[in-house]
Structure formats: structure tokens, C-alpha cells
Design brief:
250 residues; mainly beta; 7-stranded antiparallel beta sheet; 4 helices; 46% strand; globular
Length: 250
């Protein structure tokens, strides 16, 4: 048996919790000295704070995390890899070269707690089953349930691959379970758009996640070159169909 004080305190607040995943945010960095006290004070006032993920493991919940993200575990917890053979390793190695993700991601299972390294990035939890295939921008993946499959997908159209600003390949999460993403902004600033046989046009690569069921193309903002030039918008990213898009404001 084990005991831990890894729970909400005056300085360590729970900002989000879903099922077995909890996100903590440290209101201040209390480990200061005279040389950095002022910097840390103003950093906390501007929402520059350390955040940390805690994942509770049991027979129903296993976790796949980004390589090097583990800080500590307690309980009867063991780790392996998400590689299922030589062919799977070769596929993951190729995928890692085009998505900025680690080829081998450790998988933790057992009975206990897994705590990830603290980060100054913003952390959000998403239910993968509600996305119909969740495509994420490069470098955002931090952790997910072992029931979630990670695969690399290529752009469906040449225009989106060359001019979309989202990269030639992306990581797609499918199946069930929760996923934790390292986001460039807090959830309060994210804009979520749900489409039902409709379209969304975005002037720039602001989307951090979108449903794989959506068709993504890059098109002129108006039907004519003169109109696009006059509007000052030029090319826009267009998402069509049924699904969701999650966008950062900056």
C-alpha cells in the first residue's frame, strides 16, 4: 500500500479532471531565491505557471505517454512499449520523422499512479471517441489511454499539403479513451466549432485539432484572383463536412 499528498492544495489547484486523469496547476513557484523571486512573481501573475498530469492506473486504465515525459510512479506499475513487432517499429520510426513525435512511446500499466514531468505549456484533456478520428498538430501529444490508437496520416489533397501550413503529415488518434495535449493557449481561449454538413474557412494555421472525417483543403478566399487580392485574405484553410475543429486564437 502507498500514500501520497498528490492532491489539491492551496498552491496546487486542479484545473481539469476527467475519469482517471487529473491536471494540476501550481499557482506559484515556491522554490525561489532572491535572484529570481521578482521574475517568478510576475510570471505567475501572467499565467506562466507549472502544470502537471497525474494518471491513475488500474486494470481498466493503461497509459501511453510521450517518451521522456514520466517523472515518477507509485504502486505496482510496470512499463513496456507501444511497439507490436519489427514491422510496427519500422512504421513508427518513419512516422516519427514526419510528425515530430517519438517513435517509441512507453506504455504504463498496473495498479498505482503515474505522474508526468511538469511543464509551462497549457494542458487539455480530450475524449477521443467524440472526434471520429482526432487529427492533432505536430508536437501536441503528451499522453493517452492505451485503448487509443496513434497513427500517422497524410494530407488528402495536394493543396492542403503544400499551402495549408499544417504540415504534410499529422498524428491521428482513433478509438476510445482520453488524450492529453500540450496546447499553446489555455482552454478558456480555445474556439471549438462543430460542423454538420457545413464548412469552416480559417485565414491561417490556427487549428490545433480537427476531426479526420472533415475534408481539409486550401482555397482562394473568393472565386477570382482579383477578388482574393482585393479582400487581402488570399488563401484560406477550408474544413468541410461533419466534425469538430479546435482553434487557438494566436
Amino acid at each position: 500500500m502507498y500514500k501520497t499528498n498528490m492532491q489539491e492544495t492551496e498552491n496546487r489547484k486542479i484545473t481539469e479532471k476527467m475519469d482517471n486523469i487529473t491536471i494540476f496547476e501550481y499557482q506559484q513557484d515556491l522554490s525561489n531565491s532572491m535572484s529570481n523571486a521578482m521574475q517568478e512573481y510576475y510570471a505567475s501573475k501572467m499565467n506562466v505557471r507549472k502544470r502537471q498530469v497525474m494518471i491513475e492506473l488500474d486494470e481498466k486504465h493503461q497509459a501511453i505517454i510521450q517518451a521522456g515525459a514520466m517523472q515518477w510512479t507509485v504502486g505496482k506499475v510496470s512499463s513496456g512499449t507501444n511497439v507490436k513487432g519489427v514491422g510496427d517499429f519500422a512504421k513508427k520510426l518513419v512516422s516519427s520523422k514526419v510528425t515530430n513525435e517519438s517513435a517509441i512511446k512507453p506504455c504504463y500499466k498496473g495498479e498505482g499512479i503515474l505522474v508526468l514531468e511538469p511543464t509551462y505549456k497549457y494542458l487539455i484533456i480530450e475524449d477521443v471517441s467524440k472526434w471520429n478520428g482526432m487529427v492533432i498538430d505536430d508536437g501536441l501529444f503528451l499522453a493517452c489511454d492505451a485503448n487509443t490508437e496513434l497513427k500517422t496520416i497524410a494530407r488528402r489533397t495536394l493543396s492542403s499539403a503544400i499551402a495549408g501550413g499544417e504540415g504534410l503529415f499529422n498524428t491521428c488518434l482513433t478509438g476510445s479513451g482520453l488524450a492529453v495535449l500540450e496546447c499553446p493557449c489555455p482552454r478558456e481561449e480555445l474556439v471549438e466549432v462543430e460542423l454538420q454538413d457545413d464548412e469552416l474557412k480559417v485565414d491561417g494555421s490556427f487549428a490545433i485539432a480537427w476531426s479526420n472525417s472533415l475534408s481539409f483543403t486550401v482555397e482562394r478566399s473568393t472565386k477570382t484572383l482579383i477578388g482574393s487580392a482585393a479582400s487581402g485574405e488570399g488563401l484560406v484553410n477550408v474544413y468541410r463536412g461533419t466534425g469538430k475543429v479546435l482553434m487557438a486564437p494566436l
